[in-house]
Write a structure and sequence with these properties.
The structure holds two protein chains of two kinds. Chain A is of the alpha+beta class. In chain A, 58% of the residues lie in helices and 13% in strands. Chain A contains twelve helices and eleven strands. Chain A has helices spanning 24-40, 46-59, 74-97, 105-126, 141-150, 154-157, 163-176, 192-219, 221-226, 233-272, 287-303, 309-322, and strands at 5-7, 14-20, 61-63, 66-70, 128-130, 133-137, 178-180, 183-187, 273-275, 279-283, 324-328. Chain A has a ten-stranded antiparallel barrel, surrounded by five helices. Chain B is elongated. By secondary structure, chain B is of the alpha+beta class. Chain B has helices at 75-86, 100-131, 134-151, 160-176, 210-215, 219-234, 237-256, 261-297, 303-311, 317-320, 331-340, and strands at residues 7-12, 19-27, 30-34, 40-45, 50-51, 60-63, 69-72, 153-155, 185-191, 198-200, 205-209. Chain B has three domains: 7-96, PH-domain like; 98-131; 133-340, no CATH class. Chain B is built from eleven helices and eleven strands. In chain B, the strands form two sheets. In chain B, strands 4-3-2-1-7-6-5 form a seven-stranded antiparallel sheet. In chain B, strands 8-9-11-10 form a four-stranded mixed sheet, with helices on both faces. The chains are: A alpha+beta, B alpha+beta.
């Protein structure tokens, strides 16, 4: 395995670039095969499929000559899913039998969310390893409740302006409670880039809305919609076409705006991230290039009726990894596992609640 | 037996990120791991080693009983070593892709599965529904009538004599349907939203709405509607619908897992269509019962269709045809079913 190592001056750290060496065709094959098997087994196989897909993506993500490993047991994932599905079905039956019970959704959500985030972060990280050493996550219920349920209340109160601060707190919570073996991750995010990205995003959204408003008037959609009754099918189609176009444009603009903030958040988080013993990270994804990758690949994936989604996933992941690096302060030999990995380090304790907050951990790989 | 080729790998001691480049050789069923000066670093019986399943392009991991991990990039070399040591045939790892024949089988099975499912699922779900106690249905109905009284129903404005006539009719129909005393009840309500309609609640309550009674021209039409609603109750349609919907939702989340959004959309459209299909199936079942009961009373089983046509006077052809997106079959299909039902 070739190593992409280049010396860099500050603090005599060694720069190891991340790279993704998997290819779209192989991943496509894995996705199609696992999906077909999931259909045949009424979904049961998807637990195995999920593990295989993730092992392929992780294993082909390389830094300093080593890939990442994913160790989750498909059975654990299956049991977790069955519990979650059983819970939802039981809850919906309960609410159907006793409609007043529908008020329990909100408290259940508030009480359950921090727990779900902590358990699922722990499950994902404990089941991820690099160079034979597993990651870990030690959450704190009260802290997660504050950060993920409490702080977001500020967003509507401040008319949205608290958004970058709240996002910063969330990212810091996720990073500061993560471990690689016994070594702790830490991050203190600068607020400047986030505020700037927030206002650019906001500006884009407002600009897009004004533009769309003008378009709405120009196309005369309001009038057209009022005269919909008693029109022939061709006429209705002629009215619906600009409306669909309008809808697509709106979706595109929202995607651009949200992805812009997301990519700045990712860069800022990774650049602020420290691993005990002085290791640092760098992420320099160019926002414009990233949005182009998302839109172009997303477009092809959409017009292929979803067939190209595995390929698009690979392309987007590759692009992210191409702009990420580990700035190692010395040797990577001295990390030690939390628990001595004797065969079954997965342990019975790992959360059964896999899958719910997959999206939460978008920092590492 | 001894493997001829040296296999290269990386050896990690338990729980450490430090590794050594090693060569591996299998003699009989014993695995020997040597470092670059050929000193034996580790050895173990092949049968005590746990091996992860292969994923294309990702190095295989052999875990020793003491927790040390050996990573080998060359999958075929691993397979050959295992085959030699454990004296079993060399197997090509599945993750390198399937043969054309296996792909064909997989695709065919995946196409066939929904078809099998389409026939087996209703049977299974109905069996579960039938096993549930009737008190459960009564509980659903109690709350649902209360809710609807609050939200949409208002008291009926029908005259006393009109109500009495329909009561008599109802008693006649329920006797013909052999519905045990108390298993079906009749209520009168008025509703702006539902307009001309009749509703069967799971506990056996049939709610007749004023709009429907006013549109009916004769007793045969009303009797047909009552018999149809009694059919819904006797077949426990409300509970069966709930169980089928719950099962479909659960299965959908199981199949989809963390699948991507476009597939999700596709599957949810398919599931939406299945709920319409289930509903049409129940309507035809209720119609069948109604036709039997009406014939037994010597009344016209197709009279109901005339009433339905009057209700839906605003739509012409579209109500006659059966649509994939409708809860009720087309009127033409229902008429034919009513005529042919024995």
């Amino acid at each position: 395995m070739e190593q992409s190592v280049s010396e860099s001056t500050p603090g005599s750290s060694v720069r190891h670039d991340f790279s993704y060496v998997g290819n779209g065709i192989t991943y496509f094959g894995i996705c199609i095969r696992t999906f077909l098997l999931a259909i045949i087994t009424i979904g049961i196989y998807d637990a195995w499929g999920t593990v295989e897909r993730r092992r392929y993506m992780f294993g082909n993500t390389i830094v300093a000559g080593h890939g990442f490993d994913y160790h989750a047991s498909p059975k654990t994932i299956l049991i977790g899913r069955l519990i979650v599905i059983g819970g939802f079905v039981a809850l919906s039956i309960l609410v159907q039998l006793f409609p007043p019970m529908s008020f329990i959704y909100l408290p259940l959500f508030v009480v359950g969310m921090p727990w779900v985030i902590n358990r699922s972060m722990r499950f994902q990280l404990r089941n991820t390893s690099y160079r034979n050493v597993r990651f870990d996550f030690e959450g704190n219920y009260g802290r997660a409740l504050l950060v993920f349920v409490g702080l977001p209340i500020l967003i509507p109160i401040t008319l949205g302006f608290a958004y970058p601060w709240v996002k910063r707190k969330m990212q810091e919570y996720l990073v500061n409670n993560a471990f690689y073996g016994t070594s702790k991750f830490s991050a203190h995010l600068p607020i400047g880039p986030l505020v700037k990205a927030y206002f650019v995003t906001l500006g884009l959204m407002v600009g897009a809305l004004i533009l769309l408003g003008i378009l709405w008037m120009a196309l005369g959609i309001t009038d057209a919609l009022q005269n919909l009754q008693g029109q022939s099918e061709e006429q209705i189609l002629a009215i619906m076409l600009p409306l669909i176009l309008f809808y697509i444009l709106f979706i595109l603009m929202s995607v651009v705006a949200f992805k812009l903030f997301a990519v700045v958040l990712r860069n800022t988080t990774v650049n602020a991230m420290n691993l005990q013993h002085g290791h640092r990270f760098s992420s320099t994804i160019p926002p414009a290039g990233y949005i182009w990758v998302i839109l172009s690949r997303g477009f092809l994936a959409t017009i292929s009726a979803g067939l190209l989604i595995p390929w698009a996933t690979v392309e987007i992941h590759r692009y992210k990894m191409r702009h990420m690096a580990l700035l190692a302060a010395g040797s990577l030999d001295d990390f030690v596992s939390h628990h001595h990995a004797a065969g079954d380090a997965t342990g019975a304790e790992v959360g059964a609640l896999e899958g719910i907050t997959d999206g939460v951990f978008n920092v590492g790989i | 037996m001894t493997s001829e080729n040296l296999v290269h790998g990386r050896l990690f001691m338990a729980g450490s990120s430090r590794f050594q480049e090693v060569t591996v050789r299998c003699i009989d069923s014993q695995l020997f791991v040597r470092n670059d000066v050929l000193r034996v670093m580790h050895s173990a019986d092949l049968r005590t080693i746990t091996l992860d399943s292969p994923v294309a392009g990702v190095s295989r991991k052999l875990t020793f009983p003491d927790g040390a991990v050996l990573e080998i990039q060359d999958h075929m070399a691993v397979e050959e070593m295992l085959a030699l040591g454990l004296e079993k045939p060399v197997r090509r790892p599945r993750s390198y892709g399937l043969s054309l024949g296996k792909w064909a089988i997989l695709v065919l099975a995946a196409i066939l599965m929904p078809v099998v499912f389409w026939f087996l699922y209703p049977i299974t779900a109905d069996a579960i529904a039938r096993a549930l106690p009737e008190s459960l249905e009564r509980k659903i109905a109690d709350t649902s009538l209360d809710q609807m009284d609050k939200v949409t129903f208002s008291p009926s404005r029908l005259s006393f004599s009109k109500k009495r006539d329909i009561w008599h009719l109802f008693r006649e129909v329920s006797a013909a349907a052999e519905a045990p005393f108390g298993s079906v009840k009749l209520e009168f309500r008025r509703s702006e939203i539902f307009g001309a309609n009749a509703i069967a609640l799971p506990d056996g309550t049939i709610v007749m709405l004023d709009g429907l009674v006013q549109l009916a021209n004769n007793n045969d039409e009303l009797a047909g509607v009552l018999a149809h609603e009694i059919g819904h109750i006797q077949h426990r349609h409300a509970l069966r619908r709930t169980v089928r919907a719950a099962g479909i939702t659960a299965l959908a989340s199981l199949i989809l897992g963390d699948s991507v959004s476009a597939v999700e959309e596709l599957v949810s459209v398919g599931l939406g269509l299945s709920s319409f299909a289930f509903s049409r199936e129940f309507e035809l079942e209720a119609d069948e019962t109604a036709a039997k009961v009406m014939r037994k009373m010597g009344r016209d089983p197709t009279a109901m269709i005339a009433l339905l046509r009057r209700i839906q006077s605003n739509c012409d052809e579209s109500c006659e045809e059966t649509s994939l997106f409708a809860t009720h079959p087309g009127l033409r299909e229902r008429l034919e079913a009513l005529q042919s039902a024995q």
